[in-house]
Amino acid sequence: MAAIGNDVFFAGISDINRRLRSREFTAEELARAFAVRLAQLGPRYNALALALEQEAIRKGKEVDKDLKIERFRGPLQGIPYGVKDLLSYKGRPTTWGARPYAGQVFDFNATVIDKLDAVGAVLTGKLAMVELAGGGGYRLASASLTGPGLNPWDRTRWAGGSSSGSAAAVAAGLVAFAIGSETSGSIVTPASYCGVTALRPTYGLVSRHGAMALSWTLDKLGPFARSAEDCGRILQAMAGGDSKDPGSAGKSFYYTPQYERPVKELKVGYAAVDFADRAEEPARPAFQTALAALKETGITLVETRLPQFPYGPIASAIMAAEQGSIFEPLITSGKVNGLADAAQIAGLKASLEVPAKDYLKAMRLRRIIQEKLTGLFTQVDVLLAPGRPGPATPLDQPLDRGGFQPAGPAPPGLQGLVQAGNLAGLPALVLPCGFAGNLPVALQIVGLPFSENLLLALGREFQTRTDWHKKRPPEV
Amino acid sequence: MKLTRRELAAVVSATAVAAAQTEPRAPVPADELQIARNRLTANGDLLAQQEVPMATEPAFQFKA
After folding, report:
1. What pLDDT score does A292 carry?
2. Distance between A136 CA and the closest CA of chain B, angstroms
3. How many folded domains does chain A comprise?
4. Catalytic positions of A, written as ranges
5. Residues of chain A neighbouring B61 (CB-CB closer than 8 A)
6. How far is the alpha carbon of B2 from chain A, nearest alpha carbon, in Å?
7. CA B28, CA A343: separation in Å to the nearest integer?
8. Considering only CA atoms, which of A129, A45, A29, A43 is closest in space to residue A80?
9. Across residues A154-183, what is the average pLDDT?
10. HSE (CB half, 13 Å, CA atoms) of A375?
């Protein structure tokens, strides 16, 4: 039996796949090694919801049979991965990170799991999350069935939410990649805090069939991985039309960044203030270094502002109205009281009272936002901002009191880009870009709908010039 | 509606189980709900200040 070296747990997908094909180790050995590592180390970060060791080993054996007869299924064949516990996996618990759903079992797989299974990826476990993806507005990192998501870079810090386990598991080398979800920041935030590359796809590009619904018009599924290139390869396997998802765009995705315009021709919209006064002080040197590295790719930075809208309240109104309807049975039955976070419980209860006029107004404003942002993209190719203004917050810091505010007056910059991007269904790529002390910080690049290849081309170019995405947390 | 003793026992038992399942781990203070309601109201007030052309339709996804 071949020993799986520690470097394999942090290797990229192409590298692992090449080593599998060259028989350096078998898929079964790889599946076992990753599954055991996830089961052993996952609890250290409260990242594990459900270990699937036996299933992973069985799948590994299947992959070995395929490889033996040279039935190659692409770069994800034999690659161990995890999914956020909001995706249904046939016959095993799907808790949505919430105590009232601790015993929930579905009799079908989420489409994404079936698609990844078809290309030979090996599911080794389900990963922890903020309860019900945090839609009610949680106060504390502890708002989860599995406890607060701990950051592999510093376990006194939060891993971010709501895809806490997905980001932490990739950062700690417990899976080669993971699937998470975003309604309004749940991929961008944990990827930024944990220092991993992640992609929020265009709304509708990836089927959400079998995923917990929090907001039908905002929910998206996306990958956390080691690099932009890995994200592209995973997205290719995940994407595609699905009649079981009413929001499906009916489009496929092929990872072909080489056919995009040369990076040096790109106009990148940004606001200098986002990397200075609107960034937390310890993060500013890293952001400045990252900007310099980006400039070296030949891009042109263009000072830009977002159209002025109350993006946060608009997104909140939509989420509240939709989640209120989705979770009405939970709320009216009183089972909502079994959740861990008092603010989340109250937020869900109040969500039943959103007036129709507010929801409709928010959805009409959303149409205007979509048009305005499309107009903005006639002046720039992509938008650039910090993923978060600073590094991961301490575990006990209240999360519902508003984010970092600059000391003095500062122009708005691209504030609200996360909510604006989600409202307009835009894709975003998160790229680790340095450290504030011992904690990672990241950039987000946002583009037009279905411009994933452009974002990935820029991300790939950035990552050929930097190695922040290759850094490993201590003690792993 | 008449219930046999066996049916009554089943109902009482099911109610007890449901009550146990729904029992909050910690009581949610009444003002938490008021805070959440106030936030929604403030959101609504902010949205009301935004002007939207009458012809603008909501950004729903619906295909016939």
Report:
1. 97
2. 9
3. 1
4. 84, 162, 186
5. 204, 216-217, 246-247
6. 25
7. 8
8. A29
9. 98
10. 9
C-alpha atoms less than 13 angstroms from C-alpha of A475 in its C-beta half-sphere: 8
CB atoms within 10 A of CB A430: 30
A212 three-class SS: coil
Structure confidence at residue B26 as a pLDDT band (50, 70, 90): low
Contact yes or no for A342 and B35 at CB 8 A: no
How do residues A259-283 score in pLDDT, each as one tens digit? 999 999 999 999 999 999 999 999 9
Predicted pLDDT of residue B62: 65
Written in H, E and C, the secondary structure of A43-84 is HHHCCEEEECHHHHHHHHHHHHHHHHCCCCCCCCCCCEEEEE
Instruction: Classify the complex by whether its ipTM is higher than 0.90, answering yes or no.
Output: no
Closest CA to A104 of A346, A324, A335: A335
Sign of the CA dihedral B19, B20, B25, B27? positive
* Cis before A166? omega within 30: no
What is the pLDDT, as a whole number, of residue B63? 65
Q: Do A246 and B61 touch (CB under 8 A)?
A: yes
Per the structure, the complete domain to which residue A471 belongs is given by: 1-476
CATH code: domain of residue A452: 3.90.1300.10
CA atoms within 13 A on the CB side of A436: 21
- pLDDT reported for residue A427: 98
pLDDT above 90: percentage of residues in chain A: 96
Q: Are B47 and A370 a contacting pair at CB < 8 A? A: no
CA A397/CA A380 separation, integer angstroms: 37
Residues 6 or more apart whose CB falls under 8 angstroms from that of A111 comprise: A207, A208, A209, A210, A242, A244, A245
- In this model, does residue A256 exceed pLDDT 50? yes
Which residues in B lie closer than 8 A to residue A342 (C-beta atoms)?
Answer: 26, 28-29, 32
> Does B35 lie at the interface with A, CB-CB under 8 angstroms?
yes
Give the position of tokens 């922890």: A128
Contact A143, A99 (CB under 8 A): no
Question: How many residues are listed for chain B in this entry?
Answer: 64
Q: Residue A394, exposed/middle/buried by CB under 10 A (0-12, 13-18, 19+)?
A: exposed
**Per-residue pLDDT for A366 more than 50?**
yes
pLDDT above 60: residue B8: no
Model confidence, pTM: 0.94
* Helices and strands per DSSP (H, E), number in chain B: 2, 0
Quickly count: other Cβ atoms within 10 Å of residue A283's Cβ: 25
pLDDT of residue A257: 95
Ramachandran angles phi, psi of A138, nearest 5°: -85, 155
